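Students often ask why inverse folding is considered easier than folding. One informal answer: many sequences map to the same fold, so there is more than one right answer. In these notes we will look at a single instance of the problem. The structure comes first.
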């Protein structure tokens, strides 16, 4: 019989760390912590397989499948804790927690204190000798269970939680302000009123039977796997729905039993910067999510952290010591124990740990540990530090790098000079580094109101996820470094300033008041997530520094890679940027972009509109020097590396003027009538230009264009050679579908080259190849290889033609296809390995069957997308080519591809 429930407790566990698929991350690590001697309250995990049963066969089938095992497991927890479910003198209380393979906001919130009812509350009161504590726990439980399990949490953002409303009115009645001012009798009253509210809203009385409570909560966890927030999170993170979530049921420990109790979260290293320093936050006399909820200002765990915090927050040493002391100061013994636990956990998992702990009456308990989420910068620093500290080896260090996350390090930060002039409105906590500038929005679901928005909230919650993802940055008025906003933003690599206490937010009026100024929705602000500064208006940004640890990771990548990485660049500047990022050559230089600037477009238009060869040659002669000097610039910027120049590709219609004044100007310049211009433009119009007169079809109709381009390339290379610069041109013919097309163009190019060589009395080597971007080219790649020194897969067109989706029109239906799950990814972003990938694979195999040394690369958008880069490695490409800012990402992806190949 299948085993669906895994118990843990007292240094024993049925599960272990590597069982994450079955037990979820939280469950697997709770088990593992038991096994390595870390104190963890006993409990059990219901496996992810049960979630699948629940979703496929329904609730009854799932409950029936696990009932006997759950009953046995509860009995074990009772035995280990010496308590009994629902008991009047010694009740067993548990938490019910969701836990998927990967940590996932949007899942069900944890229910604490489950098992409480009118009898059990007496038992807790007796046991703790603290009646108020018992009733406060009961009050919290009814509220949490009502909100989370019975679905009473308000749907709309303006509505207020029914339980909060009841508390507010009781506070008013009693003339008190804080939750902590409630008397025991008040709390008793609240429990009664809460239960009445449950009956009124749900039509059912609050379940008093602990077993009924437990099953309700377990099923609610399974239900939450399919809620909108969880589905959205899975979508943006590519997590399959089939994984399911596990459920953890665990004996309660109480951080709210008085001044010798506390709760907190900690990181074994800094998740923002990567610095190797133990850090975290705690609250005395608090429970569960009080620290992350941003309700009270949490205190720092270490003395060092506390001092740093005080400096940032502008708190002087006396005030810090008296009001915000560190755990190291308030509970030195527990602190020492916690410190050794974090060291033990980091040593054990060999990665930065994010842990949750609770201190109950002077005893430390760990409630969770996991590999901590981190910013891109921290990811790089921690990997390099752990490598240098001898904790992990080179391969592991590289495997710790998520290529896409490097993006954060490559993007602009605020210009220091601009920052000096900026008006700082407020200072919050540097919750997630980076720079963001945008227009204020106050509601997450309105984050797309402006092109760049900054989400401003009192605090965020899991419902805000989608909006947080859209916004450029996040500012919260409340909450610490481990608040929801901070943790989620770091995970997303999004700039975030949290806990900017001087910011007053009025959701109704849609304003924020700070430093005596009232800012409206739509006003610009800028956030510095690295310093916590909130500035007025737009602040200029500047490019980041890519030395240090980043460079070390890049060197590591080169050590383990097989493919090389080139860039797509059309200007010397882009080529230089890419070279700075480590590009080894240009995989695609599009010449058409060179025709638009200034005077060139005129000559280009004359050329296009020319009636005779003579006229055309005349305008081509005007274009030649422009092209030659562009190529000189690019070849020089990439000296020593190959530069693949693609000959003219787009339909000519794209170059002619489409407005009247430009048409008139052109008519004047050329000395012909407007009518003649208009009729020529009409001639060039096509029904389907993407499948029309473009690519090599142009060069075949007008060989003089090809000849001019070839001449410009060869002359440029020879000119550089004369200056001692190593130019390595690779001439690429676009849109070839038959070998005859390639032969035709190759002849023009070779003849032109010979002409130039004899004129100059010098030669250079150059390569001549083609793009493989028409399915027929892939299908006949063996034939085409005969004429080609290299292939470059143009996967943008190849995707377009293989799917039959016009790239320019796909925007109308692709989003729907993605929504309905007809496509898993946008095939123009993520290479369709099953379809288009077959053509790539076939193209490589056929090409090399005829010419084993054929050089093969890819130059579509896919060349910088990690999963596509992995695929390119697997089919044996020599290089990938991508836009300059993707080069580091592609370098790491290429190395990972090679490393993970079995
Ligand atoms: P999340 O996945 O959102 O972190 P958790 O299941 O970890 O949710 O629980 C939320 C909070 O409740 C955490 O602070 C955790 O430490 C606390 N908690 C969970 N179970 C217990 C328990 N058995 N005793 C005390 N606190 C608990
Ligand atoms: Mg939670
Ligand atoms: Mg947790």
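Output (designed amino acids):
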């Amino acid at each position: 019989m299948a085993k669906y429930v895994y118990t843990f407790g007292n240094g024993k566990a049925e599960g272990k760390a590597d069982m994450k698929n079955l037990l979820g991350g939280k469950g697997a690590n709770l088990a593992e912590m038991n096994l390595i001697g870390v104190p963890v309250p006993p409990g059990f995990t219901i496996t992810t397989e049960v979630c699948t049963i629940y979703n496929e066969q329904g609730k009854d089938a799932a409950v029936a499948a696990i009932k006997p095992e759950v009953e046995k497991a509860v009995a074990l927890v009772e035995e280990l804790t010496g308590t009994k479910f629902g008991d009047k003198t010694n009740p067993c209380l548990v938490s019910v927690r969701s836990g998927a393979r990967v940590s996932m906001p949007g899942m069900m919130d944890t229910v604490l204190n489950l098992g409480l009812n009118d009898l059990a509350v007496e038992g807790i009161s007796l046991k703790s000798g603290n009646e108020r504590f018992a009733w406060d726990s009961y009050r919290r439980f009814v509220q949490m269970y009502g909100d989370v399990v019975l679905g009473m949490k308000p749907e709309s953002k303006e509505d207020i939680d029914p339980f909060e409303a009841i508390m507010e009115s009781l506070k008013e009645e009693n003339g008190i302000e804080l939750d902590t001012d409630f008397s025991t009798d008040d709390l008793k009253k609240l429990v009664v009123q809460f239960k009445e509210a449950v009956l009124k809203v749900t039509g059912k009385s609050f379940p008093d039977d602990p077993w009924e409570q437990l099953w309700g909560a377990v099923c609610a966890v399974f239900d939450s796997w399919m809620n909108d927030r969880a589905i959205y999170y899975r979508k943006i993170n590519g997590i399959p729905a089939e994984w399911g979530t596990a459920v953890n049921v665990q004996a309660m420990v109480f951080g709210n039993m008085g001044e010798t109790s506390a709760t907190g979260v900690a990181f074994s290293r800094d998740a923002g910067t990567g610095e190797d320093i133990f850090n975290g936050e705690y609250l005395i006399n608090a429970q569960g999510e009080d620290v992350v909820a941003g309700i009270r200002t949490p205190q720092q765990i270490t003395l060092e952290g506390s001092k740093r915090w005080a400096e940032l927050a502008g708190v002087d040493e006396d005030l810090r010591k008296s009001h915000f002391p560190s755990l190291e100061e308030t509970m030195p013994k527990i602190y020492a124990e916690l410190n050794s636990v974090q060291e033990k956990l980091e040593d054990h998992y060999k990665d930065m740990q994010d842990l949750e702990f609770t201190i109950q009456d002077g005893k430390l308990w760990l409630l969770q540990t996991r590999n901590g989420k981190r910013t891109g910068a921290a990811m790089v620093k921690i990997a390099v530090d752990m490598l240098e500290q001898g904790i992990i080896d080179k391969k592991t260090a590289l495997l710790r790098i998520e290529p896409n996350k490097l993006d954060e390090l490559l993007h602009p930060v605020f210009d220091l000079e601009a920052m000096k002039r900026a008006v700082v409105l407020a200072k919050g906590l540097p919750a997630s580094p980076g720079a963001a500038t945008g227009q204020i929005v106050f509601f997450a679901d309105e984050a797309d109101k402006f092109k760049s928005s900054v989400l401003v909230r009192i605090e965020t919650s899991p419902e805000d996820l989608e909006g947080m993802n859209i916004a450029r940055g996040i500012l919260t008025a409340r909450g610490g470094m481990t608040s929801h906003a901070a943790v989620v933003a770091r995970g997303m690599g999004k700039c975030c300033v949290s806990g900017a206490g001087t910011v007053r937010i009025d959701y109704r009026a849609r304003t924020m008041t700070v430093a005596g100024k009232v800012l409206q929705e739509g006003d610009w602000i800028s956030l510095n997530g690295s310093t916590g500064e909130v500035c007025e208006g737009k602040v200029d940004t500047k490019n980041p520094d890519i030395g240090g640890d980043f460079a070390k990771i890049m060197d590591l990548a080169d050590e383990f890679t097989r493919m090389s990485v080139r860039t797509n660049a059309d200007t010397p500047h882009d080529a230089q940027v890419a070279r700075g990022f480590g590009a080894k050559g240009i995989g695609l230089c599009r010449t058409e972009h060179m025709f638009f600037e200034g005077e060139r477009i005129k000559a280009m238009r004359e050329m296009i509109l020319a009636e005779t060869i003579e006229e055309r040659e005349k305008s081509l002669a005007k274009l030649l020097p422009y092209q030659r000097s562009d190529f000189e610039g690019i070849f020089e910027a990439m000296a020593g590396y190959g530069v693949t120049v693609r000959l003219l590709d787009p339909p000519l219609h794209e170059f002619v003027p489409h407005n009247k004044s430009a048409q008139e100007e052109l008519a004047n310049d050329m000395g012909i009538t407007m009518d003649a211009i208009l009729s020529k433009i009409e001639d060039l119009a096509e029904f389907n230009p993407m499948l029309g007169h473009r690519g090599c079809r142009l060069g075949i109709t007008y060989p003089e264009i090809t000849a001019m381009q070839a001449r410009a390339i060869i002359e440029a290379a020879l000119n550089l050679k004369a200056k001692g610069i190593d130019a390595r041109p690779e001439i690429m013919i676009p849109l070839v579908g038959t070998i005859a097309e390639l032969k035709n163009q190759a002849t023009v190019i070779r003849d032109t080259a010979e002409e130039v060589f004899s004129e100059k009395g010098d030669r250079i080597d150059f390569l001549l190849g083609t793009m493989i971007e028409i399915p027929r080219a892939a299908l006949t790649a063996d034939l085409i290889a005969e004429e080609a020194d290299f292939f470059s897969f143009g996967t943008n067109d190849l995707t377009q033609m293989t799917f039959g989706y016009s790239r320019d029109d796909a925007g109308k239906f692709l989003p729907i296809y993605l929504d309905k799950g007809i496509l898993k990814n946008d095939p123009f972003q993520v290479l369709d390995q099953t379809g288009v990938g077959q053509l790539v694979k076939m193209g490589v195999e056929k090409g090399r069957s005829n010419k084993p040394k054929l050089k093969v690369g890819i130059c579509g958008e896919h060349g910088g997308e990690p999963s596509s880069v992995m695929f390119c490695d697997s089919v044996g490409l020599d290089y990938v080519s991508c836009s300059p800012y993707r080069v580091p990402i592609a370098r790491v992806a290429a190395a990972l591809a090679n490393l993970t190949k079995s």
